[in-house]
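Open question from group meeting: does this chain pack into something compact, or does most of it stay loose? Before anyone orders reagents, we agreed to write out a predicted structure and look at it together. Recording both the input and the output here so the notebook holds the full record.
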Amino acid sequence: MKKHIYLFRHGQSYYNKDHVFTGWKDSRLTPLGIKQAKVIARKLKNKKIDVAFQTTLSRSKDTLKEVLKYHPECRIVITNDKMLERNYGRLNGKSHKAFVKREGTDAYRTLLHWHKIDHLIGWDRKQFIKKLGEAELKIIRRSYSIAPPRGESVKMVEKRVNIFIKELLRFMKREKVNVALSAHGNSMRPFRKYFEKLSIKQMMELENPWDDYFDYIVNV
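Structure tokens returned:
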């Protein structure tokens, strides 16, 4: 017997819109995010969902709420934070712009201190600092094993998501059910790596949509 996992990301939140490290902060859906959730809901309208999973964050719950409007057959909703978004630690709630400026300035001062570069002025200094900061931002967002201060690396997220996947597969095989997962951008990476058999590099290059879903078939 074949059953389905319908995996999707929540719609756009206000922190997403404003380029803020959201992490475990509870940022609600924007009007666009609600529209995106409705798009996912329409795409899943004719599927059968027996059990749905969400996290404690409102953006996950509110996206799932739109999806389940078409699924009166789904009588069980389970909250499980093993599929919660990546914790950015001290960066939760901090803007990308502020991070780029602070990290770029610190890196620039370090390079000056160690005489790795000459002193820059004006526009050249500003652009150099921006490039340094953007490089640090990319490391935090796209590195597999580097964690922000008091936060999680993607490797750490993958560890807890993999535990959830094993629990989920046992549950599906026992109960013979189709499930919907209202997840987050970074928790979706390990899901997709597992079911699509991706490398770490491929996983880290993923861009997860706000208005679509992934369908994985499980033999039960």
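Observations to bring back to the group:
The chain is about 50% helix and 15% strand.
The CA atoms of residues 55 and 84 lie 6 Å apart.
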